[in-house]
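Reply to dn_fold:

You asked what the input looked like. This is it:
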Amino acid sequence: MELVSRILDGSIPYNSRGEPLGPSYFGGRISQDDRITRLEEVSLLQGCSRKQLRKIAKISEVLEVPADTVLARTGAAGNDFFLILDGHARVEVSSRKRSRLGPGQYFGEMSLLDGGPRSASVVAETPLRMLVIKRRDFTTLLNEAPELTQSILETLSRRLRLAEATVND
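and this is what came back:
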């Protein structure tokens, strides 16, 4: 929903085919194999097979945005997952807590799963090229591929156990 509102308000201009307008900051297209390779870097998907990653890659879209584009706002509904391919973004949890994301890093994974509100604002510091996965497409894929759901649940369970062990130490 956040992306749709930005497209409608003109902060991300698109043509009639749904492609971003303006200059491309990055050369070349992202192949299906490149998408799979980049998705392998996502810890949420680490338990997925190559076949499962191929299915996820098929529903991903490449999005390029200029610097200063707001990609997520704290408290806004989250419906997209972003994996940064090129460029850097600034994450603002509060006025004192900020971090920087670069290639291979991602955000929006919680919203991808539950559609809940964003826990931080994210702004492009430089032009960005990202893989974007829409929640509705991901939910459809999970319904069509229950083995993918199982892989993600196992990964989340491992992450939760690790987090609990860290807290209990």
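The chain has one domain: 2-168.
Hope that clears it up.
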